[in-house]
Structure formats: C-alpha cells, structure tokens
Amino acid sequence: MQHWLDKLTDLTAIEGDQSNLKDALAGLAEQIGFAGYAYLNIQPGHMLVISNYHAKWQSVYFERNYSALDPVVGRAKSMKRTFTWSGEQERPRLSKAERSFYAHAADFGIRSGITIPVKTANGSMSMFTLASEKLAIQLDREIDAVAAATAVAQLHARIAFLQATPSVEEAAYLDPKEATYLRWIAVGKTMEEVADLEGVKYNSVRVKLAETKKRFNVHTTTHLAALTIRRKLI
C-alpha cells in the first residue's frame, strides 16, 4: 500500500494536461486491483467530482443528493484521516436509507474502499477514494496517515492548477428574481436598496434570498453572491 502512495505522489508531477492525469489515476486504480477512483472537492454550497465511476452512478449520485446521505462523505468530514469502509461490514449500524445507498452503489461495483480526506482552503475539503468490488478491504499493514494526506494534498493542488473539468458537479440554478437580486448585491447594494430598485417590499427580497441561501447551503448573503459569481450564475 505504501508503494501505491508513492505512485500517487509521483503521478501528480507528470507532465501533460488533465486528460493525462485522469488516465494516470484510472491506470493506478486498475493496477492495484481497484474498480475505480473518485476525487471529491467539497466546498460550502458546492461539490465537484473527478472520477472514472460508471457515468450513470455519478449522475444518480447528484440527482438524488446522495452526498448528504453517503456514509463515506460523512466519515471523511468528521474523521479527517484515512479510513477503509465496507457497505457490508457497516450494515448493522446503518440506517435504512444508508443501507439502500450502499446497495445502489453495489449495483455499480462499489462495495468497499479506501478514502483519504484532506482539509483545503476556506473551509473546504478534498477526498480521494479507491473503490473495490470486494465486500471488504484487507490491508497487509496500516496506511501511513501522513504519507496518504501528503499524496492527496498534492493531487488536490495539481487538479486545482490544471483547472480540471469535473466528471460531474452539483447542478446549480437561480430563478429570475434570485439572479436579479444577487446581481444588485454583487455590486454593493443592500437588500433595502435592492427592494427600492426593484419596486418590491424589503421582506420579499429577504425571504427570497434566505430560501436561496438554504438551497446553496450557505449562511450569508455575501457568501451566496460570491458563490454564484464563481459558478457563473450571475
């Protein structure tokens, strides 16, 4: 397993574009006997994935908002260290919804795996997973936590540098009123000023943007405006 971590570190330094990196990750997963890989970058209000999992599974994962249910993501957020997981072994302590999630993942050959989470800038987290069709992962020795975190941190930096295109990312949208209000907010207007400019009540703007913040899972209007600009929604 340590040899695998060395290889992961090495491939983050290879020359070439994002296609080379994605091919190298897929090749590494296959070489060491895993069904596939997934890199997730989880930011407040936004998540993107680079993976060679089955395209249908990736699509369903976002359509059904599985990230909120996924026990692997939950453990990564709380533990922030390398761990192995198995849908079968964890079954007795899972909720009905979580068991259903793992059963659905198993339909696509995802039954167990190794996940390495790392903390990234501004309250974000990245995690790298190698998934297996086996019921459980058997390791011959404990994974070096420092080496694992270092390798994934370098992978995260490389993906960010390449501005790699996600395999899939959470769908985001603004309705016409949300977009209009946030365009004003983005140029420095207060909600009171937005209400005056648009000829509506202050409460209409406040409630509308509160609903939008909840949907994007952010807590401030400033963060919401920044996020929608970054996602090119306004």
UniProtKB/TrEMBL annotation:
Domain of life: Bacteria
GO biological process, one term: regulation of DNA-templated transcription
Keywords (A to Z) from UniProt: DNA-binding, Transcription, Transcription regulation
Ranges of residues in domain HTH luxR-type: 167-232
Keyword Transcription appears in the UniProt entry: yes
SUPFAM superfamilies: C-terminal effector domain of the bipartite response regulators, Pheromone-binding domain of LuxR-like quorum-sensing transcription factors
UniProt-listed InterPro entries: Sig_transdc_resp-reg_C-effctor (IPR016032), TF_LuxR_autoind-bd_dom (IPR005143), TF_LuxR_autoind-bd_dom_sf (IPR036693), Tscrpt_reg_LuxR_C (IPR000792), WH-like_DNA-bd_sf (IPR036388)
One GO molecular-function entry: DNA binding
Gene3D superfamilies xrefs: Transcription factor LuxR-like, autoinducer-binding domain, Winged helix-like DNA-binding domain superfamily/Winged helix DNA-binding domain
Presence of the UniProt keyword NAD in the record: no
Entry-linked PROSITE patterns: HTH_LUXR_2
Signal peptide: none
Official protein name in the record: LuxR family transcriptional activator of conjugal transfer of Ti plasmids
